[in-house]
Amino acid sequence: MSRVWNFSAGPAVLPAEVLARASDEMLDWQGSGMCVMEMSHRGKEFIGIAAEAEKDLRELLAIPAHYKVLFLQGGATFQFAQVPMNLLGATGKADYAITGEWSKKAAKEAKAYGDIHIAASAEDRAHTYAPAQGAWRLRADASYVHYCSNETIGGVEFNWTPDTGTVPLVADASSHILSRPIEVSKYGLIYAGAQKNIGPAGLTIVVVREDLIGHARAGTPSVMDYKLQSDADSMLNTPPTYSIYVAGLVFKWLKALGGLAEIERRNVAKAKLLYDAIDAGGFYRNPVDKPDRSRMNVPFTLADARLDDAFLKGAQERGMLQLKGHRSVGGMRASIYNAMPVEGVQALVAYMKEFEQRHG
Ligand SMILES: *Cc1c(COP(=O)(O)O)cnc(C)c1O
Hints:
- With about 350 residues, the protein is α/β, with parallel strands linked by helices.
- It folds into two domains: about 15-255, Aspartate Aminotransferase, domain 2, CATH 3.40.640.10; about 260-360, Alpha-Beta Complex (Aspartate Aminotransferase, domain 1).
- It is about 35% helix and about 15% strand.
- It is built from nine helices and 14 strands.
- The protein has helices at about 15-25, 45-60, 75-85, 100-110, 225-230, 240-255, 260-280, 310-315, 340-360, and strands at about 5, 65-70, 95-100, 115-120, 145-150, 150, 155, 170, 190-195, 205-210, 285, 295-300, 320, 330-335.
- The strands form four sheets. The protein has a seven-stranded mixed β-sheet. A three-stranded antiparallel β-sheet has the order 11-12-14, with helices on one face. The protein has a two-stranded parallel sheet with strand order 1-13.
- A hairpin with a 4-residue loop joins strand 6 (about 150) and strand 7 (about 155).
- Helix 3 crosses helix 4 and helix 6 crosses helix 7 (about 260-280).
């Protein structure tokens, strides 16, 4: 068996220890004689698995008791509609910050449900920075403020939490959740599709302040109503059981290695290695303002785009996959999520130096 260094933006690398454990338990989960995939979601085994996953997630993120944790489906894209359907409330107004492709999509989707105002935008410089707090034009009567705390495509990450006063802050944290400690109480709602930094696709996690639920607009489908899902422990209908199980194993993996403070330390070290290599000469380039560079998604271009194919081919020969940049940005993108070991980043950096020596 051989494993590659997988730099995919998502679905993405999972910890080898987690996959090995899932494999050990595949045919017989802890003496049950069943695979988790085969279990009823109403049975005591699976209810225990889901409850433990929630408990471990609460511990990792230090989620206060007055926040609900929901295990939903539909991906982050589903939340682009579900958030306004549930949170717009009587005012029908929400403010959005635009810092890249994902926040742009979120705002566009929300427009079908209410009065959406663009409070901040990084469009003037091709989404290569996080607009400073002073540049945000917030409405005091908005029901919430939405932003994307890590733009997966452009590689722009907020290293600070926007201050929205008493207006609830909503974050699409899909591509950096669990990569660093955060203060959940500063948010009204945090959502994340699982397939970047949590586990298999199919699961979407929503952490929401209790008082914000129960106000869904008329006509909201039951499965999209946070309150109904919360009252049913996210099992209004069949949840993505196997994805929840693997996510639970990832939570245990994170706890065992020392929690979010330790994974943040590792992520800072990995990102520094890669950005230092990019900044070392003029051959590679990352366009994002330094304080706003993502620790998780690192786009970079080569001095000559005609070398892109050769770079990718050489990377593939060395067991490094999925480095091609998003079609809207071009060049390369290395996603170095929690589960990417530092050795993978070291291998990439060594190859970048070798390639530059040959072609620079
Ligand atoms: C991947 C991603 C999405 C879309 O996720 P889906 O699960 O495909 O809906 C949305 N926002 C961010 C920040 C992402 O990284």
